[in-house]
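Inverse folding, one chain.
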């Protein structure tokens, strides 16, 4: 919830006056509960969607980073309240876990995927395959010289978070006609 990727994504959405909710999954930070390998965490996402719907009564957009992007996209695909999805640093292999995206072919809302081209948790060749199986509308952005956390690499030093943020803003303008 407090890492730089999540913070910069939140700033991109809030620049349009959109309400933003950041939360920790069960067992992260000071939250209660135990890690549930992504299953119970989908319930966390659904509880957050319910809260947003009750308190704002607006169409919902979902953005998640790394583990959160996989879990959140699984929870949100097929939920009629969710009108668009952003997956940041989509993982394929991380911390001894493999992540699957078999749910994506049924996900017809606009989708934006942003990854660093040097993200060791999301190798480009594998993510390109994930992207190809997702239906339109969709957009894949590779941030040159960025790692999983959108930081620079030895060949391309310096944070790339601003580039990630601008891609989110551009997508919101194009897909949803929003003005910042």
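Residues assigned per position:
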């Amino acid at each position: 919830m407090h890492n730089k990727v999540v913070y910069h994504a939140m700033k991109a959405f809030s620049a349009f006056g959109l309400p933003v909710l950041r939360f920790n999954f069960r067992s992260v930070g000071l939250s209660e509960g135990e890690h549930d390998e992504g299953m119970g965490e989908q319930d966390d996402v659904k509880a957050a969607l319910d809260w947003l719907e009750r308190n704002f009564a607006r169409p919902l957009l979902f953005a998640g980073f790394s583990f959160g992007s996989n879990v959140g996209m699984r929870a949100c695909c097929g939920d009629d309240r969710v009108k668009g999805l952003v997956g940041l640093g989509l993982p394929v292999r991380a911390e001894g876990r493999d992540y699957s995206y078999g749910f994506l072919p049924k996900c017809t809302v606009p989708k934006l995927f942003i990854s660093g081209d040097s993200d060791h948790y999301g190798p480009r060749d594998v993510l390109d395959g994930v992207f190809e199986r997702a239906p339109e509308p969709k957009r894949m952005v590779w941030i040159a010289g960025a790692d999983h956390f959108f930081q620079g690499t030895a060949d391309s030093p310096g944070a790339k978070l601003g580039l990630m943020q601008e891609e989110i803003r551009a997508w919101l303008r194009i897909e949803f006609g929003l003005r910042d």
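The beta strands are 60-65, 82-88, 93-94, 97-98, 111-116, 138-143. The chain has a mean pLDDT of 92.
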